[in-house]
């Protein structure tokens, strides 16, 4: 076993077939039923789809690392419901899982190959992090897959020994995996060119070959016709020849009488070209934003009847205006039997100056005032410097992070937001935490009480909310919980997604989990101490799927079920 996996007892399963039941997973791990401490299929709820939807997954916690390793070696890439499953160690270090230098891409996998035998073939060269053989809905292999090793040396040995090797009459292609942006960069270094605007009468392919032959040896040349449009594709022996041809021939006429100059560019797929154009557009927008950073103004509450010309005249009194635009919307209406298109102002617009000082003066002159000539308008205009969407989003995330790090709704309330490591979380967390974070803010007491049936906690509806003066002295029902209507009692998923790594996300969710478990009716009924609350919090955070932890945190019924499961494991 790889040294990085010592003392680990948590396995993570990906690529589970859709709708896999817990019973089917129990049968699959039948030989290890006495060695498993916890096993759960991670739900793939559509209700809280804040992260990308993925295949079903499962987490299994073994009593000992040795049994976890034995189960992984014995069952990995075997089939459940006709599909091979990928069993991995639960890694918390992203740099291990996403080490592209040790990640391989395999092509030419026979459709009738046994996934387990293929896994064993690659496992000869080193410890494998994950093995994924792509398949369709019924489990048929699609001819390609991915193998990720812990060590780069293992990946190199696999390439040296298995590349071009025949398996079941199919030749494997084993190569280093490349990210999409790396593949796009490699695709740009191609040796083929695309030619359009071919002059009329259309040149023949032999004539085009003569024109481009001086740039290098041509390996392929063909003319195409599409809806009376003629274009050609020419391939050279290497990319340098193609780049030279593009540089010298593009946007030049073959003869002085030609209507249009030739268009010559490197051959690209439609999707690649679209991506390149979008990138070029984004770069151009960024360049414009930088040039006009402090000169461009955003104006709200513009009168609906105000025109672009009138807006320019008003702001030109301050200084020279570069551009003006009022955002408009097309409204389709109908008068009798006639369709009418009405263009209306959306109430906001932009004014860009050449000079930064003019923009600043315009804000001082017109902000929070009614524009000259439009004193009868209902509201004064609001003016601020224009900020691109990406910068606005970044600023809002910073504001939200400050709000949730230093809330404004509790007073002298202290609770631990770190949690000790439990026997079920041998990896990924530091030594026993015992820090307390004291936030100095006004705590608003709960305003509503909800009566619960048994130990299942449901979100309150309007009909369940009682008055704040309800007397709860009735001791016959012990399952009464206070529901705080403060928004800060629920995690904010936008801020959660903005956190840099999984550990920060779990720390953030852990604050809410600890507090909710502490206030839960089961905890109140059984008088949980801080150690038990911390252990249950740690068990939930050990699941490994941030989306599921988030769903447990905001869904009281789900949280109740998890608390009961944890109590069963802890034998409390």
Key words describing this protein structure:
4-stranded antiparallel β-sheet; 18 helices; 572 residues; single chain; Alpha-Beta Plaits; 24% strand; 24 strands; alpha+beta; flat; 4 domains
Task: Provide a quick synopsis of the model.
The chain has about 575 residues and is α+β, with helices and mostly antiparallel strands.
Secondary-structure topology with pairs:
Elements: E1 10-16, H1 22-28, E2 36-42, E3 56-62, H2 65-75, E4 79-80, E5 83-84, E6 86-89, H3 94-97, E7 103-107, H4 115-123, E8 128-135, E9 141-149, H5 152-162, E10 166-167, E11 170-171, E12 173-176, H6 180-188, E13 192-196, H7 205-212, E14 218-226, E15 229-236, H8 239-249, E16 263-266, H9 270-291, E17 296-300, H10 308-316, E18 321-335, E19 338-353, H11 356-366, E20 382-385, H12 389-405, E21 413-415, E22 437-439, E23 448-451, E24 480-483, H13 493-498, H14 502-519, H15 521-526, H16 530-541, H17 546-554, H18 556-570
Antiparallel strand pairs: 1-3, 1-6, 2-3, 4-5, 7-9, 7-12, 8-9, 10-11, 13-15, 13-16, 14-15, 17-19, 17-20, 18-19, 21-22, 23-24
Helix pairs in contact: 14-16, 14-17, 17-18
The 3D shape can be described as flat
The spatial strand order of the largest sheet comes to 2-3-1-6
Tell me, rounded to a whole number, the average pLDDT: 76
Tell me the CATH topology of the largest domain: Alpha-Beta Plaits
Number of helices: 18
Radius of gyration: 33 Å
Query: For the record, what CATH class of the largest domain applies?
Result: Alpha Beta
Q: What's the count of strands?
A: 24
Based on secondary structure, the structural category is alpha+beta
Distance between the ends: 35 Å
Give the domain tally: 4
What do we call the CATH homologous superfamily of the largest domain?
A: RRM (RNA recognition motif) domain
- Uncertain runs are 1-6, 44-54, 403-487
């Amino acid at each position: 076993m790889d040294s990085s996996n010592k003392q680990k007892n948590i396995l993570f399963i990906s690529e589970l077939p859709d709708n896999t039941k817990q019973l089917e997973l129990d049968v699959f791990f039948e030989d290890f039923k006495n060695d498993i401490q916890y096993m759960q299929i991670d739900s793939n709820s559509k209700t809280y789809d804040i992260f990308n939807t993925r295949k079903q997954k499962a987490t299994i916690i073994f009593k000992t690392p040795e049994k976890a390793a034995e189960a992984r070696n014995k069952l990995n890439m075997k089939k459940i419901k006709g599909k091979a499953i990928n069993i991995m160690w639960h890694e918390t270090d992203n740099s291990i899982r996403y080490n592209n230098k040790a990640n391989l891409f395999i092509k030419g996998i026979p459709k009738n190959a046994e996934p387990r035998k293929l896994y064993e073939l690659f496992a000869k060269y080193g410890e494998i992090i994950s093995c994924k053989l792509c398949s369709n809905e019924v489990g048929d292999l699609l001819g390609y897959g991915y193998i990720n090793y812990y060590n780069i040396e293992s990946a190199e040995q696999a390439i040296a020994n298995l590349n071009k090797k025949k398996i079941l009459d199919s030749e494997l292609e084993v190569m280093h995996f490349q990210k999409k942006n790396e593949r796009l960069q490699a695709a740009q270094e191609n040796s083929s060119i695309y030619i359009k605007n071919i002059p009329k009468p259309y040149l023949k392919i032999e004539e085009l070959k003569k024109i481009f032959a001086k740039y290098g040896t041509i390996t392929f040349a063909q003319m195409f016709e599409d809806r009376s449009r003629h274009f050609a594709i020419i391939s050279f022996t290497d990319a340098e020849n193609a780049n030279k041809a593009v540089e010298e021939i593009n946007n030049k006429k073959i003869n002085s009488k030609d209507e249009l100059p030739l268009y010559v560019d490197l051959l690209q797929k439609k999707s690649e070209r679209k991506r390149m154009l979008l990138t070029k557009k984004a770069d151009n927008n960024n360049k414009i934003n930088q040039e006009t950073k402090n000169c461009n103004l955003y104006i709200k509450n513009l009168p609906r009847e105000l025109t672009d010309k009138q807006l320019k005249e008003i702001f030109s009194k301050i200084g020279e205006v570069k551009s003006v635009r009022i955002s408009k919307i097309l409204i389709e209406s109908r008068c009798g039997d006639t369709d009418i298109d009405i263009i209306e102002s959306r109430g906001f617009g932009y004014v860009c100056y050449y000079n930064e000082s003019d923009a600043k003066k315009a804000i001082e002159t017109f902000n929070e005032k009614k524009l000259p000539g439009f004193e009868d308008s209902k509201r004064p205009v609001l003016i601020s410097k224009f900020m691109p969407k990406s910068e606005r989003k970044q600023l809002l995330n910073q504001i939200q992070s400050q709000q949730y790090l230093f809330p404004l709704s509790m007073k002298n309330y202290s609770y631990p937001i770190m949690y000790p490591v439990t026997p079920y979380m041998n990896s990924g967390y530091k030594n026993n935490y015992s820090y307390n974070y004291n936030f100095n803010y006004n705590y608003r007491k709960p305003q509503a009480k909800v009566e619960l049936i048994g130990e299942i906690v449901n979100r309150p509806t309007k009909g369940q909310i009682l008055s704040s003066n309800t007397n709860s002295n009735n001791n016959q029902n012990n399952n009464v919980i206070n529901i705080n209507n403060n928004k800060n009692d629920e995690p904010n998923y936008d801020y959660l997604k903005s956190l840099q790594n999984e550990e920060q996300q779990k720390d953030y969710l852990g604050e809410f989990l600890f507090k909710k478990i502490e206030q839960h009716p089961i905890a109140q009924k059984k008088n949980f101490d801080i150690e038990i609350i911390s252990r249950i919090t740690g068990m939930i955070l050990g699941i490994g799927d941030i989306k599921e932890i988030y769903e447990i945190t905001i869904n009281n019924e789900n949280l109740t079920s998890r608390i009961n499961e944890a109590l069963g494991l802890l034998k409390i």
